[in-house]
Amino acid sequence: MKMNRIVFPLALALAATLATTGCKHTPVKVTPIPGATNPNVGDRQANDTMPPSPPFNPDTDPSKHNIDTTALNEFEGMIKDPAALAANTIHFAFDSAAIKKSEKDNLVAVASALKSSLNDKLLIEGNCDERGTDEYNRALGERRALAAREALAKLGVSPDRIRTLSNGKDKPADSGHDESAWGKNRNDTFILLHPKAGV
Amino acid sequence: MKKIFTLIVTLATFCLSHANETDLGDITKGSPFAQKPVPVALSGFTGEGAEVLKFDLTVQGFSFVAPDQAQYLISGSDAGAVSGTLTDKFAKRQLLSRSYNGASLRRQAHAFADDIVQAVQNLKGIGQTKISFKAQPNSAGAGEIYVADFDGHGAQRITTDGAIVAKPAWVPGRLALYYTSYARGNPDIFYHSLSSGQRRVVAGYSGLNTSAAVSPDGAKVAMVLSKTGSPNIWVCNADGTGLKQITHGDEDSSPTWSPDGSWICFATKHNERRRLAKIPAGGGTVQYLNTAGAPNPTEPDWSPDGKWIAFTSQMGDFNICVMPAAGGGTPTVLVSGQNPSWAPNSRTLVFNRSLGYRQILSVLDVFTKQYKDCARATGSNSQPAWAK
Lengths: 199, 388
Description:
Largest sheet of chain A: 5 strands, mixed
CATH superfamily of the largest domain in chain B: TolB, C-terminal domain
Structural class of chain A: alpha+beta
CATH architecture of the largest domain in chain A: 2-Layer Sandwich
Number of strands of chain A: 8
Helix content of chain A: 25-40%
Shape of chain A: globular
Shape of chain B: globular
Number of helices of chain B: 3
Low-confidence stretches of chain B: 1-29
Distance between the termini of chain B: 40 Å
Oligomer: heterodimer
Structural class of chain B: mainly beta
CATH class of the largest domain in chain A: Alpha Beta
Largest interface: A-B, 71 and 97 residues
CATH topology of the largest domain in chain B: Neuraminidase
Helix content of chain B: 10-25%
Radius of gyration of chain A: 30 Å
CATH superfamily of the largest domain in chain A: OmpA-like domain
Strand content of chain B: 35-45%
Mean pLDDT of chain A: 77
Distance between the termini of chain A: 72 Å
Largest sheet of chain B: 5 strands, mixed
CATH class of the largest domain in chain B: Mainly Beta
Strand content of chain A: 15-25%
Number of helices of chain A: 5
Radius of gyration of chain B: 21 Å
């Protein structure tokens, strides 16, 4: 403490002298790097280190009891059957969530599958091609899934049985980068959800 | 008359903010985005120190030239540790003489760069700041959230979800993030403390939960939810409580806060055209921004000094644009890229741009349009967020 009080003004005086005399090759002011092992965040120093995160455990997640996951819970544990309605994937025009008239037969087929087995539910995954920004496309994929949910409701399926999920442009059906791939990637896929055995 | 007045104001603003520069060559163009970089010459640095100094200073408005063309001379050494001096050749005055110890050589060089920025521009340098971003093995599919130095070095993986992840956002002044992860089979928003490693879901409603943006005081989070049937902007407390719907459009995305916390800017659609708009953070009347000349604007990010809004315009390809937040000016197209995020200095942006079919992170000085590519973590890197 006492040391600093003496050394600091001395260093300042020395630095000031050097600055005025213009001595170039003898740096004198030693600047320790604050927090050698601690990263800075923005303007402030943080006395935090960053361990890798532990694997996420939904059972111990403290927030699970505080938030409304009712809608999600209803679908949890159901068995995904992506094959059942794979032939009924519907496709969209560029940057559009409007359902084309030509997709009506596919939606009717999905609706009748749900009507014929009342214990099944449906997951609609909305997808986009790569020609949109990330978060815009995440919203666009959701609008595509919601549009199909709306259409199925009009065909007599209760919307409570339908969950939507947007992949944005993160889950392309075709990894190509041309119109043929983009056309395939602008879609809603329908995944039938069966109740768990014994439920 | 109005033009002359604008020019005078521009000149005055420029002179005030660049009192240290003697070269005012480009100001007659009247654009704040065509400034000449500050010419500096570097000597004595050979390895990593030279690389760091060049990176840091280039993206804060300096250019490296021969000594006879430079206004400032930077000399010193990075053998073992960094030491250096900064001399103003025109004023014939030494501005800085320091040596550094501790941490790593890179960190010492970043600290020297910060001192140079402070001495020449009287601004706090960004050399020792952090970014977070999303990394994917390919350009699509599952990924993880990473944290790194702002130049991409020292990247550290934060998540182990093996799922689609998206849009990290820093809590101002803290080692904590919000981000989207599909770990539970649905896009949910997580809060993740990087000091404790603990995380929790703050928005896990049915449908879409994404695009978290933390208010400048850290107390509120804006986000996109679709729980009422269309993607809209919602605001909740930092812990997820007190949820309130703010917008009611059909296609809202990408909220960002004004630095005083009173406005939220977002992307939306109006009269069949994609627009940027702002709305009082507590809800209210939507005001549409003038983005003429920059079609299909998305991904706005408000600068920490409140003056600018950076965003992505889609005109065939993606372009990074900047416009005055207060209106009264049209957007300026800067470089090709997406997902701009401001540095704490309100002049540098981190964004991602295409390299082949992958994305890489790049750091851009908006006033001189100089940019440098970041070191790459695994695969494709995108959606960077600058810690502030």
